[in-house]
Design goal:
binds adenosine monophosphate; 125 residues; alpha+beta; HIT family, subunit A; globular
Length: 125
């Protein structure tokens, strides 16, 4: 389930294993199309990952190949997880591919908040 130019989905990536229940996670929310859980190495007081349940490598793959129901369900879940941070503000972040530093090849959105998050990107030296 990948689009042209993207690597095939690795069924043994860590988030696939979490979805299969092979390794634990600190679950925040589960819906028919999404799972949200705390990042194992949080970079802010709130750092939650939201992943689709389907096998999508990246945002590109998900947006191109997921059904409308999966896309809607996923983004509704992102909204539910983000809602408690609405007052103070929050950041959504999705890494995609080499230059972004994407570590886990299963599409995920980071929900970050709970402190002032600083500049969006580190400027090159
Ligand atoms: P990315 O660099 O966007 O691919 O982010 C991958 C994220 O997954 C990192 O923030 C990791 O800390 C996080 N992560 C890796 N393994 C786990 C795990 N077993 N449970 C929760 N978060 C994880």
């Amino acid at each position: 389930m990948s689009v042209n130019g993207l690597p095939p989905y690795d069924t043994n990536n860590i988030f696939a294993r979490i979805l299969r229940g092979e390794i634990p996670c600190k679950r925040v929310l589960e819906t028919p199309h999404a799972l949200a859980f705390h990042d194992i190495a949080p970079q802010a007081p709130t750092h939650i990952l939201v992943i689709p349940k389907g096998p999508y490598v990246s945002a590109t793959d998900f947006n191109a190949t997921a059904s409308a129901e999966e896309i809607a369900g996923f983004w509704r879940a992102v909204g539910q997880v983000s809602a408690p941070l609405e007052g103070s503000g929050y950041r959504l972040l999705a890494n995609m591919g080499h230059d972004s530093g994407q570590e886990v090849p299963h599409f995920h959105v980071h929900v970050l908040g709970g402190r002032a998050l600083g500049p969006m990107l580190v400027r090159p030296a």
